[in-house]
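tokens incoming
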């Protein structure tokens, strides 16, 4: 039986990529110390700042909210009910149960209250990809709610970031490569964004959530099936199986070279949306465009139904 490298007791967690065996207590302590180290290294936040944490109901976001509170940061959660049937129902339940157990304030907003329909219905009505619509709406609502906060945080982990990097490199998305970093500083009315789990693997965040008794939704979003990010994760997992530490070296190596892409980034001037004031590259932001299209479609459907009934 393997022994914990720190205390010598029987190990319960094995971090193969780091060749490290730890008992339950030392794994939790090691995890929290590494998160704190990442926050300090990239100057993500200090304990006097108000942090808004995006929580979906999954392991990463709930674990992030939990660990930041445990480390003494001023945190508030933020959850969007996307209106995706049973998936959204279960996600909200996990968030509410977590809120009750942890005693952390969580702001909850509903896409159906905003648009009169859920993400899937919006996608179908506008005939646009669901994930694209969802991303636009979530970013807007998150930034809008973040107005009274200093920092916004997301639970993106090592696997997420390495998969994103692979996709951006394969397609040579210079703009995205220039912006991929654990910290995006505030710009105009957009708040500072941080990713404290950027060097924590998906296995580590899942293990931490389990050991800290965090109940989370296991199912993936039904619209995630076939997503490129899942495909890229599968490739990286196969490489990691053959060459331990590939993901961390891939990502950390990129961060050291990122300046080359930043120098090539096109400086796009942002201006306030004429309808809502949100910073955008055009006169009307994508969120307001979606609202306009929905209203136009609804109006057209109402007119057709009226004429058919005459």
């Amino acid at each position: 039986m393997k022994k914990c490298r720190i205390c010598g007791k029987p190990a319960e967690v094995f971090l193969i990529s780091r060749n490290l065996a730890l008992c339950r207590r030392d794994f939790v302590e090691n995890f929290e110390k590494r998160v704190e180290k990442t926050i300090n290294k990239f100057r993500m936040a200090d304990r006097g700042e108000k942090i808004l944490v995006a929580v979906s109901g999954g392991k990463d976001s709930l674990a992030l909210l939990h660990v930041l509170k445990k480390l003494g940061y001023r945190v508030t959660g933020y959850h969007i009910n996307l209106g995706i049937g049973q998936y959204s129902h279960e996600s909200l339940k996990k968030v509410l149960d977590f809120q009750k157990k942890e005693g952390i304030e969580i702001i909850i907003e509903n896409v159906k209250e905003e648009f009169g329909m859920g993400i899937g219905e919006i996608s179908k009505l506008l005939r646009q990809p669901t994930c694209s619509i969802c991303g636009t709406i979530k970013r807007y609502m998150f930034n809008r709610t973040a107005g009274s906060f200093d920092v916004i945080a997301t639970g993106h982990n090592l696997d997420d970031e390495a998969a994103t990097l692979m996709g951006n490199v394969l397609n040579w998305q210079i703009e995205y490569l220039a912006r991929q970093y654990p910290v995006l500083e505030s710009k105009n009315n957009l708040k500072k964004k941080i990713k404290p789990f950027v060097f924590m693997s998906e296995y580590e965040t899942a293990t931490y959530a389990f050991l800290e008794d965090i109940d989370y939704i296991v199912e993936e979003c039904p619209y995630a099936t076939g997503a490129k990010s899942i495909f890229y994760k599968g490739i990286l997992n196969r490489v990691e199986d053959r060459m331990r530490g590939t993901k961390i070296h891939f990502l950390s190596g990129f961060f050291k070279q990122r300046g080359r892409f930043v120098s090539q980034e096109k400086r796009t001037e942002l201006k306030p949306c004429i309808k809502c004031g949100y910073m955008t590259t055009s006169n009307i932001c994508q969120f307001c465009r979606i609202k306009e299209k929905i209203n136009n479609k609804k109006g057209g459907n109402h007119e057709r139904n009226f004429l058919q009934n005459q």
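note: Residues 302-310 have pLDDT under 50 and may be disordered.
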